[in-house]
Fold each of these.
Amino acid sequence: MNSRLGYGVYGKADAAASGVGVIGDCEGVDGTGVVGVSRSDSGFGCGVEGVAFSGRGVWGKGSTEGVLGQQDNTSGHGVRGLASASEGYTRGVSGENESINGVGVYGGAHNGSGTTYGVRGMADSPTGFGVYGSNTATTGAAGMALYGNGRLKVTGRSYLGTPNSVPLAADLDNGSISFYLDQKNNKLKVRVKYSTGVMKTAIIALGV
C-alpha cells in the first residue's frame, strides 16, 4: 500500500484488554511471522517500531531467545537500549533472571584474537562508575558484589575498602587474601589462606 500517512499495514484492536492490532503466523521451520524493512539509506529508520503508552513497546517470547538482535556493520550494535530521560534511576538496558543459577545480563566476546570485551561499561561523569556491582542479600553469609574468574588488571589508581573486622576463614577461598584495618593499634593486617586451607596473618605497621 502506498499511503500518504506512511503506513504499509495498519492494525487496530479496540478490546479493553489483551487485544492484538496485527498478528503474523508462520509454520515454517525457519519462518518469520512478521517482517519489517526500512529501505531508506539515511536517517534513523526502523524496520519495526513498538510504542506503548503503558507497558512494553516490544515484547519477545521464545523457547530459546525472547529477542535476538543482529547487525553486520563493523561499528554497529546488535541490540541497543536508550533511556533518554535526563534524571531519575533509568536503565538503557535491564536484564533480570529468576533462576537459582541464572544471569541477569550476559556478554560474551568469542573471537579468539584481538582486545575484546565480554561486557564493557563507560561513564562520563567524574563521580560515575563504568561498571557497578551490588549484592543486597540479607540472609546467610555476606554476598559478593563482584566476582572474577581469572587474572585481574587495573590501570590507574586503585581504592580498596579495608573494614576493621577480621574476615572469616569461610569467606576466603584457598590461595586468597583479604585486608582489614586494626585502627586501634595503627596496623594494616592481611589475612592469608594457603592452598591447604591454613590461615596466616601478616601485619604492617602504619606510620604516624
Amino acid sequence: MSCKQIKIGFLLKRIALVNWVLQRVRKSYLIIFAAELLESSGNSAKILMKKFIYIKLLFISTLIFSQTKGKIIKIKDGDTVVVLLEGKTQETLRLADVDCPENSQAFGKNAKQFTSSQVFGKTVVFYRISKDRYKRTIAKIFYENEKYLSAEIIKAGFGWWYFKASKNMELQKFQNQAKENKLGLWADDNAMSPWDFRKSKRKKKVS
C-alpha cells in the first residue's frame, strides 16, 4: 500500500466518522427544526430548511476537509514537531500512528535526527485528528509527493507502530520489515518500546 493509498484510506475513515456523527445528531436537529417548521409557513419554512442544509454541509466540510499547510520550524523529538501557520501562529503536532523513542532513551536522538532530515524547514500538509492529554494536536503529516511521515519513520526503524491508538495494519508490516532488516533501533535485539520506557521511569519516581 502506497502513502497515497494510506491518505485515501484516512479520508474514507473521516467520511465514515462524519456519517456516524451525523446519524447521532440528525435526530436532535430534525426535532428542533420540525418544531420550528410547525410554527412557520410559506417562505419562513423554506428559510428554515435552507438553514438546516447549510448547517449540515458546514459540519461535514469542517470534519472532512480540515487539511492545513504549514512550515516545520522545530523538531521536539522523533514524533513531535512545531509547524508555522499563516498569520505567524505556531502549533505543536504529535504524529499519529507512531511512537518514537524518548529523547533520553536509546535511539531517541537518532529518531529526532531522522524526522528532522525528512521535514525540517519544509512545507507540509497535515490533517488534525484530535488532541492528546498534553493539549498537542495529533496529526497525520504528508510531504514530498504524498509521503506519510509516520510511515517513513517506521520504515526506517526509528519508531514503533502505535497499535494502541492506530488501526493501520500496513504500518505493522513496515515495522516487521524494519525489524527483520535490523534497521535503526531494531539493530538492538533488546530495544524497549517508548511506552515501556515511560512506565519504567514512572515506577522509579514512585520508588
Amino acid sequence: MFLLMAEVLRFREVAKAFPGNRLWEFLGTHQSHVDWLGCHLHDLTQPSFLQDWTRHTAKPVVPVRKGGYDEQFASDPKVFRDGDHWTIFYFGVGKGGAHIMIAFSRDLLHWTAHPEPLYKAGGNPSGHDKQYEHKISLVYNPADDTYYLYYCACGKDGRGIGLITSKPVASGR
C-alpha cells in the first residue's frame, strides 16, 4: 500500500526537489526501475525485467471444451515442471461443479488437457466439497514422499480448505 501511495505522491519528484536528502533519495530510488543489481522495494512488486510482455495470439492454450468438465471455463492455472514435461493444474467448471483439472505440455505453448478431472466436485464423502473444488496449491514433502494438494472446498459446510494427497507415480507406470 505504501508503494502505491508513493506513486501517487510522486516520491521520485519530491526527491529531486531535495538533492542530498538521504531519506528522499532512498524513497525516490525505490520509485524507479533500475537494473536488477539488488533488491529495490518497488521491483519486488513490479520487476523491471517483466515489463515487456508479448501476448500469445493463438486461441487460449487450454481452451474450454464443449461437454467437458471445463465447458464453462478453465481458470486459475498453476504450472509445474515434472521431469521432461510441464504440468498445469487448473479448475474447470462444467457438468454441475468446479473440478480440479490437469493438462500437459512439452513447450509451454501446446497443452493437452486430460478429459477427466484429477478430482471431481463431490469427491469427499463428508460433502465439504460437494459443489466446488478449485484454486489449488501443490506442495511436495520429501520427509514422507507425499504430494499435498490443497484446494478451496465449497459444499454443505460453506467454504474451507480441502486436502488430497498422493504418493509420486513411478516412471513408466
